[in-house]
Amino acid sequence: MDIIFLIAVIILGLGFIASFKNQLDPIDLQHLRKLFFFHLIFGMYYCFFVTGDAAGYWRVAQSMTPEDFDTFIVGEKGTYILFALNYFPAKILGLSYFSGTMLYSLLGFIGMMFFYVIAVKTIPYNSKFRNYTLFPMVFFMPNLHFWSSAVGKDTLLFLCIGMFSYGMLAVSRRLLLLIIALLLSYIIRPHITLFLLVAFGMSYIVSSKVSRTKRFFLSIILIGIGIAILPSVMEFAKIEETTIDSFEQFSEKKADLLSRANSGSRIDISSYPFPLKVFTFLFRPLFFDINGIPAAIASIENLLLLIITVNVFRNKPLQTVKAAPFIIKGLILFLIIGTIAFSQSLGNLGIMIRMRNMFLPGLLLFILWSFSYRKELEMKKK
Known about the structure:
By secondary structure, the chain is mainly α. The chain is built from 18 helices and two strands. The N and C termini lie far apart (61 Å).
């Protein structure tokens, strides 16, 4: 049964890639096929060699009763909703944990493909960094695949963010896609939905390339929805009042709980200054944090990302952001909001990498845009 389901996943994945043949060049379709099989390898690795929440999410769903499903589907957002979402494939269809992981790997890849298409549509020039072509190389970063291939909330949110960002390229034609992305992200982690709405609402406001009328109405709609769901976000985060003090208390409480978690990657960030907390969230673990093979791979990847990011910020970053398409602006703002929020509350490098993965595409697309914009300016000077 597992082999049959794996074949079905491969057929679906390749079929999804083929559905973009009118939007992408043959070379991009070829890159995406390679990216898909690369992604499935990480899904298989996660299934057989990583112990954690993913297996629990599936096994609980396998043992659920119809009464449990009724309770969870109307219960609290987050984990209980995930159990309910897994109920049909795990319990009704009887799929194994391996098949479930392959299903989630497919969903994670679809999210990644949306980001790939955004890069193709919005970034005109490919560039090299020290003789290495950046695109599509940045999409083969191991951690980008590792955390978007497992059974869990992170993979579904990665899909939602990709869907939403892609949908914003053509709102009128992809309205259903946008609604699905917002609803699914809302029932999993409502604060991520809020971040998305605020980030893209602000992006519309500051994007001069979008017509004034469209800017006004879409920004009002997005920010308005964000304000509407704010009480639910507060309830989900267990914050009683929308004050600065309450946010600080929440961050301190989360940081204390997570830094005392039973994990070899825990760190005490409570005494870190704000810039160091941000740096830790975005670029650690580094070589001095290595405690195993996964951390070693992550540290190499983070070091390369840090070197490229430093290069980007040495070349008029504010001007580069201002000139960016509104989709990339939105993902940059989403990255900034998420980084500020999570860098203050997470005290475990493993959790940081997992959470950062939702925001990483924004950083990668900004890097690609920055090199492209620099090349565009150089061509204009000639």
